[in-house]
């Protein structure tokens, strides 16, 4: 599974392609398959996202999960302050990264 990620041009927030627009939540990410380059070119030209790229991901019982630890950290948020993560109410948030 391939998903797209980048940074929102206005806020700098990590965003994920949901099939229509960019979302703050990795759970919204959709498999872009072989269309990654086409979508990236269109979105970069529209100037909605900065430094977007495709990554490998897996879908498990919790939803979409980036395949590489770097992207898992980007999806979750700060690792030193779990209370500032995008899922602060999730008791497993600290374990989700690793």
How is this structure best described in words?
This protein has 98 residues and is of the alpha+beta class. The chain has a domain at 2-69. The chain is 23% helix and 30% strand. It is built from 3 helices and 5 strands. The protein has a 5-stranded antiparallel β-sheet with strand order 3-2-1-4-5, covered by helices on one side. The longest helix is centred in the middle third of the chain and has 10 residues, at 36-45. The radius of gyration is 13 Å and the shape is globular. The model has no long low-confidence stretch (mean pLDDT 85).
Name its key features.
five-stranded antiparallel beta sheet; globular; 98 residues; 30% strand; alpha+beta; single chain
| Low-confidence region ranges | none
Distance, first to last CA: 19 Å
Sketch the topology as an H/E string, one letter per element: EEEHEEHH
What is the residue-averaged pLDDT?
A: 85
**Proportion of beta-strand residues:** 25-35%
């Amino acid at each position: 599974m391939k998903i797209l990620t980048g940074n929102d041009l206005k806020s700098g927030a990590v965003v994920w392609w949901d099939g229509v627009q960019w979302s703050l939540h990795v759970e919204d990410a959709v498999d872009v398959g072989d269309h990654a380059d086409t979508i990236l070119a269109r979105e970069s030209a529209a100037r909605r996202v900065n430094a977007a790229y495709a990554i490998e991901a897996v879908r498990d019982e919790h939803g979409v999960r980036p395949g590489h630890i770097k992207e898992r950290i980007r999806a979750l948020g700060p690792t030193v302050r779990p209370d500032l993560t995008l899922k602060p109410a999730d008791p497993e948030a600290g374990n989700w990264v690793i």
